[in-house]
Protein backbone atom coordinates (compact mmCIF):
# COMPACT_ATOMS: atom_id res chain seq x y z
CA UNK A 1 0.00 0.00 0.00
CA UNK A 2 1.26 3.52 -0.61
CA UNK A 3 0.23 6.42 1.56
CA UNK A 4 -1.86 7.89 -1.28
CA UNK A 5 -4.25 4.94 -1.30
CA UNK A 6 -4.51 4.56 2.48
CA UNK A 7 -7.88 4.76 4.18
CA UNK A 8 -8.10 4.49 7.94
CA UNK A 9 -10.99 3.42 10.13
CA UNK A 10 -10.84 4.45 13.78
CA UNK A 11 -12.41 1.91 16.14
CA UNK A 12 -13.25 3.12 19.65
CA UNK A 13 -14.40 0.65 22.34
CA UNK A 14 -16.35 2.58 24.94
CA UNK A 15 -17.85 1.65 28.28
CA UNK A 16 -19.42 4.55 30.21
CA UNK A 17 -17.44 7.23 28.43
CA UNK A 18 -20.10 9.93 28.06
CA UNK A 19 -17.75 12.66 29.31
CA UNK A 20 -14.97 12.16 26.78
CA UNK A 21 -16.34 10.24 23.81
CA UNK A 22 -17.44 13.30 21.79
CA UNK A 23 -14.09 15.11 22.03
CA UNK A 24 -12.25 11.86 21.29
CA UNK A 25 -14.29 11.40 18.10
CA UNK A 26 -13.99 15.02 16.98
CA UNK A 27 -10.22 15.08 17.38
CA UNK A 28 -9.84 11.66 15.71
CA UNK A 29 -11.42 13.04 12.54
CA UNK A 30 -8.23 15.06 11.95
CA UNK A 31 -6.01 11.95 11.83
CA UNK A 32 -4.75 11.63 8.23
CA UNK A 33 -6.68 9.29 5.90
CA UNK A 34 -9.53 8.68 8.39
CA UNK A 35 -12.83 8.24 6.58
CA UNK A 36 -14.74 6.13 9.11
CA UNK A 37 -15.08 6.25 12.90
CA UNK A 38 -16.82 3.34 14.59
CA UNK A 39 -17.72 3.48 18.27
CA UNK A 40 -18.68 0.25 19.98
CA UNK A 41 -20.69 1.05 23.07
CA UNK A 42 -19.87 -1.94 25.23
CA UNK A 43 -23.02 -2.10 27.35
CA UNK A 44 -22.65 1.37 28.87
CA UNK A 45 -25.09 2.39 31.56
CA UNK A 46 -24.65 6.07 30.69
CA UNK A 47 -25.49 7.85 27.44
CA UNK A 48 -22.24 7.10 25.61
CA UNK A 49 -24.08 5.96 22.48
CA UNK A 50 -26.10 9.18 22.02
CA UNK A 51 -23.04 11.35 22.63
CA UNK A 52 -21.07 9.32 20.07
CA UNK A 53 -23.86 9.53 17.48
CA UNK A 54 -24.21 13.28 18.00
CA UNK A 55 -20.47 13.63 17.39
CA UNK A 56 -20.91 11.94 14.00
CA UNK A 57 -19.55 8.43 14.61
CA UNK A 58 -21.06 5.19 13.36
CA UNK A 59 -22.27 3.59 16.58
CA UNK A 60 -23.04 -0.01 17.41
CA UNK A 61 -23.93 -1.26 20.83
CA UNK A 62 -23.47 -4.42 22.87
CA UNK A 63 -26.66 -4.74 24.93
CA UNK A 64 -24.55 -6.22 27.74
CA UNK A 65 -20.95 -5.53 28.65
CA UNK A 66 -18.56 -7.97 26.94
CA UNK A 67 -15.17 -6.45 27.61
CA UNK A 68 -12.75 -4.41 25.54
CA UNK A 69 -11.52 -7.22 23.26
CA UNK A 70 -15.03 -8.12 22.22
CA UNK A 71 -15.74 -4.45 21.47
CA UNK A 72 -12.66 -4.32 19.22
CA UNK A 73 -13.82 -7.44 17.35
CA UNK A 74 -17.26 -5.97 16.82
CA UNK A 75 -15.75 -2.71 15.59
CA UNK A 76 -13.38 -4.45 13.16
CA UNK A 77 -16.30 -6.49 11.76
CA UNK A 78 -18.32 -3.33 11.15
CA UNK A 79 -15.35 -1.80 9.32
CA UNK A 80 -14.98 -4.94 7.15
CA UNK A 81 -18.64 -4.62 6.16
CA UNK A 82 -18.02 -1.01 5.16
CA UNK A 83 -14.79 -1.67 3.20
CA UNK A 84 -15.38 -1.23 -0.51
CA UNK A 85 -14.99 -4.18 -2.85
CA UNK A 86 -11.94 -3.94 -5.07
CA UNK A 87 -10.20 -1.48 -2.77
CA UNK A 88 -7.51 -2.19 -0.17
CA UNK A 89 -9.15 -2.88 3.20
CA UNK A 90 -8.92 0.11 5.52
CA UNK A 91 -6.15 0.27 8.07
CA UNK A 92 -7.55 -0.19 11.56
CA UNK A 93 -6.76 2.37 14.22
CA UNK A 94 -7.80 1.18 17.68
CA UNK A 95 -7.97 3.98 20.21
CA UNK A 96 -9.44 4.28 23.69
CA UNK A 97 -12.46 6.49 24.29
CA UNK A 98 -10.84 8.53 27.07
CA UNK A 99 -8.15 10.27 24.99
CA UNK A 100 -10.36 13.33 24.53
CA UNK A 101 -8.91 16.00 22.28
CA UNK A 102 -5.48 14.35 22.37
CA UNK A 103 -6.77 11.48 20.17
CA UNK A 104 -5.42 13.31 17.10
CA UNK A 105 -1.94 12.74 18.50
CA UNK A 106 -2.19 9.13 17.36
CA UNK A 107 -1.59 10.48 13.82
CA UNK A 108 2.11 9.40 13.78
CA UNK A 109 0.96 5.77 14.00
CA UNK A 110 -0.46 5.87 10.47
CA UNK A 111 2.57 6.62 8.28
CA UNK A 112 4.74 3.55 8.90
CA UNK A 113 1.75 1.21 8.38
CA UNK A 114 0.49 3.04 5.28
CA UNK A 115 3.96 2.94 3.74
CA UNK A 116 4.50 -0.74 4.58
CA UNK A 117 7.40 -0.19 6.99
CA UNK A 118 5.39 -1.76 9.80
CA UNK A 119 2.33 -3.99 9.98
CA UNK A 120 1.31 -2.55 13.33
CA UNK A 121 2.35 0.55 15.23
CA UNK A 122 1.80 1.06 18.96
CA UNK A 123 1.69 4.40 20.78
CA UNK A 124 4.07 5.05 23.66
CA UNK A 125 2.46 7.57 26.00
CA UNK A 126 4.21 10.16 28.15
CA UNK A 127 4.07 9.70 31.91
CA UNK A 128 0.48 10.37 33.03
CA UNK A 129 -0.22 12.58 36.03
CA UNK A 130 -2.07 10.62 38.72
CA UNK A 131 -1.08 7.14 37.48
CA UNK A 132 -0.49 4.91 40.46
CA UNK A 133 0.73 1.51 39.29
CA UNK A 134 3.89 -0.28 40.33
CA UNK A 135 4.54 -1.87 36.98
CA UNK A 136 3.30 -5.35 37.95
CA UNK A 137 0.88 -5.89 35.05
CA UNK A 138 3.16 -4.13 32.60
CA UNK A 139 6.07 -6.30 33.77
CA UNK A 140 4.09 -9.53 33.42
CA UNK A 141 3.08 -8.59 29.90
CA UNK A 142 6.52 -7.43 28.77
CA UNK A 143 8.25 -10.52 30.17
CA UNK A 144 5.82 -12.88 28.46
CA UNK A 145 6.20 -11.11 25.11
CA UNK A 146 9.97 -11.15 25.47
CA UNK A 147 10.06 -14.86 26.41
CA UNK A 148 7.88 -15.88 23.51
CA UNK A 149 9.19 -13.61 20.78
CA UNK A 150 12.39 -11.83 21.86
CA UNK A 151 10.78 -8.35 21.72
CA UNK A 152 10.80 -6.12 24.77
CA UNK A 153 8.23 -3.38 24.24
CA UNK A 154 8.29 -0.22 26.36
CA UNK A 155 4.50 -0.09 26.87
CA UNK A 156 3.10 -3.55 26.14
CA UNK A 157 -0.39 -2.64 27.43
CA UNK A 158 -0.87 0.36 25.16
CA UNK A 159 -4.12 -0.05 23.23
CA UNK A 160 -3.57 2.79 20.76
CA UNK A 161 -2.59 0.76 17.70
CA UNK A 162 -2.74 1.15 13.93
CA UNK A 163 -2.57 -2.03 11.83
CA UNK A 164 -3.28 -3.59 8.48
CA UNK A 165 -6.28 -5.87 8.14
CA UNK A 166 -3.84 -8.73 7.58
CA UNK A 167 -2.04 -8.04 10.86
CA UNK A 168 -5.38 -7.86 12.66
CA UNK A 169 -6.40 -11.21 11.18
CA UNK A 170 -3.15 -12.74 12.48
CA UNK A 171 -4.23 -11.79 16.01
CA UNK A 172 -7.70 -13.33 15.75
CA UNK A 173 -9.47 -14.64 17.72
CA UNK A 174 -8.53 -11.87 20.14
CA UNK A 175 -7.73 -12.79 23.73
CA UNK A 176 -10.46 -11.84 26.19
CA UNK A 177 -10.76 -8.56 28.07
CA UNK A 178 -7.50 -6.90 29.14
CA UNK A 179 -5.33 -9.68 27.71
CA UNK A 180 -5.95 -8.42 24.20
CA UNK A 181 -2.88 -6.21 23.67
CA UNK A 182 -0.38 -8.71 25.08
CA UNK A 183 -1.81 -11.57 23.04
CA UNK A 184 -2.10 -9.44 19.90
CA UNK A 185 1.58 -8.52 20.11
CA UNK A 186 2.65 -12.14 20.59
CA UNK A 187 0.39 -13.50 17.86
CA UNK A 188 1.41 -10.87 15.31
CA UNK A 189 5.12 -11.35 15.95
CA UNK A 190 4.84 -15.14 15.76
CA UNK A 191 3.00 -14.70 12.44
CA UNK A 192 6.02 -12.75 11.14
CA UNK A 193 4.57 -9.24 11.35
CA UNK A 194 6.71 -6.14 11.94
CA UNK A 195 5.76 -4.02 14.96
CA UNK A 196 6.95 -0.57 15.95
CA UNK A 197 6.46 1.57 19.04
CA UNK A 198 6.05 5.31 18.40
CA UNK A 199 5.94 8.11 20.98
CA UNK A 200 2.60 9.99 20.86
CA UNK A 201 1.66 12.94 23.02
CA UNK A 202 -1.51 11.40 24.45
CA UNK A 203 -3.37 11.91 27.71
CA UNK A 204 -5.89 9.46 29.13
CA UNK A 205 -7.67 8.83 32.41
CA UNK A 206 -4.97 7.23 34.54
CA UNK A 207 -5.63 4.32 36.89
CA UNK A 208 -5.04 5.67 40.39
CA UNK A 209 -3.84 4.11 43.60
CA UNK A 210 -7.25 3.78 45.25
CA UNK A 211 -9.28 0.62 45.80
CA UNK A 212 -10.98 0.68 42.40
CA UNK A 213 -7.61 1.23 40.73
CA UNK A 214 -6.22 -1.88 42.39
CA UNK A 215 -9.31 -3.89 41.48
CA UNK A 216 -8.84 -2.79 37.87
CA UNK A 217 -5.18 -3.88 37.93
CA UNK A 218 -6.15 -7.24 39.42
CA UNK A 219 -8.52 -7.79 36.48
CA UNK A 220 -5.80 -6.72 34.04
CA UNK A 221 -3.32 -9.13 35.68
CA UNK A 222 -5.82 -12.01 35.51
CA UNK A 223 -6.59 -11.41 31.82
CA UNK A 224 -2.96 -10.99 30.78
CA UNK A 225 -1.94 -14.13 32.71
CA UNK A 226 -4.77 -16.10 31.11
CA UNK A 227 -3.88 -14.96 27.58
CA UNK A 228 -0.21 -15.79 28.13
CA UNK A 229 -0.87 -19.20 29.70
CA UNK A 230 -3.21 -20.21 26.88
CA UNK A 231 -0.42 -19.43 24.41
CA UNK A 232 2.18 -21.25 26.50
CA UNK A 233 -0.01 -24.35 26.54
CA UNK A 234 -0.36 -24.17 22.75
CA UNK A 235 3.41 -23.70 22.31
CA UNK A 236 3.00 -20.30 20.64
CA UNK A 237 6.49 -18.80 20.29
CA UNK A 238 9.26 -17.89 17.92
CA UNK A 239 11.77 -20.68 18.43
CA UNK A 240 15.29 -19.56 19.30
CA UNK A 241 16.94 -20.91 16.15
CA UNK A 242 14.87 -18.51 14.02
CA UNK A 243 14.92 -15.50 16.36
CA UNK A 244 16.77 -12.28 15.78
CA UNK A 245 19.39 -11.49 18.38
CA UNK A 246 17.58 -9.39 21.06
CA UNK A 247 20.70 -7.27 21.56
CA UNK A 248 20.24 -5.84 18.03
CA UNK A 249 16.88 -4.42 19.11
CA UNK A 250 16.60 -0.60 19.12
CA UNK A 251 13.67 0.97 20.98
CA UNK A 252 11.36 2.72 18.54
CA UNK A 253 12.66 0.85 15.48
CA UNK A 254 10.45 -1.57 13.50
CA UNK A 255 10.87 -5.08 14.92
CA UNK A 256 10.36 -8.44 13.20
CA UNK A 257 11.06 -11.45 15.43
CA UNK A 258 12.58 -13.67 12.73
CA UNK A 259 16.10 -13.60 11.32
CA UNK A 260 14.98 -16.33 8.89
CA UNK A 261 11.49 -17.65 8.38
CA UNK A 262 10.90 -21.32 9.23
CA UNK A 263 9.82 -23.50 6.31
CA UNK A 264 6.25 -24.62 6.90
CA UNK A 265 4.46 -27.37 5.02
CA UNK A 266 0.86 -26.50 4.17
O1 LIG B 1 -15.60 -3.54 29.56
C1 LIG B 1 -15.02 -2.61 28.99
C2 LIG B 1 -14.07 -1.81 29.65
C3 LIG B 1 -13.45 -0.79 28.96
N1 LIG B 1 -13.77 -0.55 27.66
C4 LIG B 1 -13.08 0.53 26.93
O2 LIG B 1 -11.73 0.13 26.76
C5 LIG B 1 -10.89 1.27 26.73
C6 LIG B 1 -9.73 1.11 27.74
O3 LIG B 1 -10.25 1.07 29.04
P1 LIG B 1 -9.63 1.93 30.25
O4 LIG B 1 -10.54 1.81 31.41
O5 LIG B 1 -9.28 3.29 29.76
O6 LIG B 1 -8.36 1.07 30.59
P2 LIG B 1 -6.86 1.45 31.08
O7 LIG B 1 -6.49 0.66 32.26
O8 LIG B 1 -6.66 2.91 31.15
O9 LIG B 1 -6.14 0.86 29.87
C7 LIG B 1 -4.79 0.60 29.62
O10 LIG B 1 -4.55 -0.80 29.68
C8 LIG B 1 -5.43 -1.59 28.86
C9 LIG B 1 -4.94 -3.05 28.93
O11 LIG B 1 -5.07 -3.57 30.19
C10 LIG B 1 -5.43 -1.15 27.41
O12 LIG B 1 -6.50 -1.79 26.76
C11 LIG B 1 -5.62 0.36 27.30
O13 LIG B 1 -5.46 0.75 25.95
C12 LIG B 1 -4.60 1.07 28.18
O14 LIG B 1 -4.83 2.49 28.12
C13 LIG B 1 -11.77 2.49 27.01
O15 LIG B 1 -12.11 3.09 25.80
C14 LIG B 1 -12.99 1.86 27.67
O16 LIG B 1 -14.16 2.62 27.54
C15 LIG B 1 -14.68 -1.36 26.99
O17 LIG B 1 -14.93 -1.16 25.80
N2 LIG B 1 -15.28 -2.36 27.68
O1 LIG C 1 -1.72 1.87 35.80
C1 LIG C 1 -1.33 1.23 34.84
O2 LIG C 1 -0.39 1.59 34.09
C2 LIG C 1 -2.01 -0.09 34.50
O3 LIG C 1 -3.16 -0.26 35.26
C3 LIG C 1 -1.03 -1.24 34.71
O4 LIG C 1 -0.59 -1.28 36.03
P1 LIG C 1 0.89 -1.73 36.46
O5 LIG C 1 1.50 -0.51 37.08
O6 LIG C 1 0.70 -2.85 37.46
O7 LIG C 1 1.65 -2.19 35.27
UniProtKB/TrEMBL annotation:
Transmembrane segments: none annotated. Its cofactor is Mg(2+); Mn(2+). Its EC number is 2.4.1.266. Keywords: Glycosyltransferase, Magnesium, Transferase. Pfam families: Glycos_transf_2. Residues 10-128 form the Glycosyltransferase 2-like domain. CDD domains: DPM_DPG-synthase_like. Belongs to the glycosyltransferase 2 family. This is Glucosyl-3-phosphoglycerate synthase. It comes from Flaviflexus ciconiae. The lineage of its organism: Bacteria, Bacillati, Actinomycetota, Actinomycetes, Actinomycetales.
